[in-house]
């Protein structure tokens, strides 16, 4: 593989713009750059989650997700280009079905809490939702493929399910919301 990064501090962004993969320059506050940043932040949070003790199948899944998020970031950085394939969404669907099947049905809302790994999975989930919202906003201005939006939507669902899986890893459980309204209804 060729050495792509020869210089990190180029100073070309000092004027408030950044270069895209097609050599065009855009403002750093553009929705495209925001979407790229949200995806990068999500990938970084998943990297932090990978520092936790995890079942090997979850670890392998998250490493693959990191690669796909890098593809998504690359696709966002090159307008009109496709790097994230629909098969990546199908892989998330399969993982979602597999991990969800092992969990009890939810009867109540749960809090984004529990074990450290589960809590970090919830942080990843919320960042994935933000990235999805930014991609949806970008779609209002520019033409994008459906796969980036679908991938982020499915990934946030998967991260919710993985948080539940991780809370059960050492015999734990979900942390249920104690709704004042529901509590009053049972009096």
Automatic annotation (TrEMBL):
Keyword hit for Cell wall biogenesis/degradation: no
Region (Disordered): 1-23
Single GO molecular function: corrinoid adenosyltransferase activity
All copies of domain Cobalamin adenosyltransferase-like, residue ranges: 8-165
Catalytic EC class: transferase
Sorted UniProt keywords: ATP-binding, Cobalamin biosynthesis, Nucleotide-binding, Transferase
EC number(s) stated in the UniProt entry for this protein: 2.5.1.-
Catalytic activity, reaction form: 2 cob(II)alamin + AH2 + 2 ATP = 2 adenosylcob(III)alamin + 2 triphosphate + A + 2 H(+)
Stored SUPFAM superfamilies: Cobalamin adenosyltransferase-like (SSF89028)
Gene3D superfamilies, per database record: Cobalamin adenosyltransferase-like
Coiled coil: none
Family from the record: Belongs to the Cob(I)alamin adenosyltransferase family.
PANTHER family hit by this protein: CORRINOID ADENOSYLTRANSFERASE, CORRINOID ADENOSYLTRANSFERASE MMAB
Protein name: Cobalamin adenosyltransferase
